[in-house]
Design goal:
79 residues; globular; little secondary structure; 1 helix; 2 strands
């Protein structure tokens, strides 16, 4: 069950601000969930100006239309 006292909202938060908030307020070994599950996709725009964390690979989106056969690499941070 989630702790209602820790519920937060954010708008236009930077990656640095978000990482800093998490590291200062949540144990570093807590599992990161998106949409209630621990499996998610990371999307970064071509200019590295925006990041999206999503529960979908967005394969049908216009941005990825020509990349259907491109393998999605995994973020492997655990040994």
């Amino acid at each position: 069950m989630y702790d209602v006292k820790q519920r937060r909202s954010a708008t236009n938060i930077t990656v640095g601000e978000f990482c800093r908030y998490l590291l200062e307020n949540v144990p570093a070994d807590a599992v990161f969930h998106v949409g209630g599950v621990s499996h998610f996709y990371l999307h970064v725009d071509e200019d590295n100006k925006a990041v999206s964390v999503d529960d979908s690979d967005l394969a049908c989106e216009e941005d990825y239309v020509n990349w259907n056969e491109h393998t999605i690499k995994s973020i492997n941070v655990r040994s």
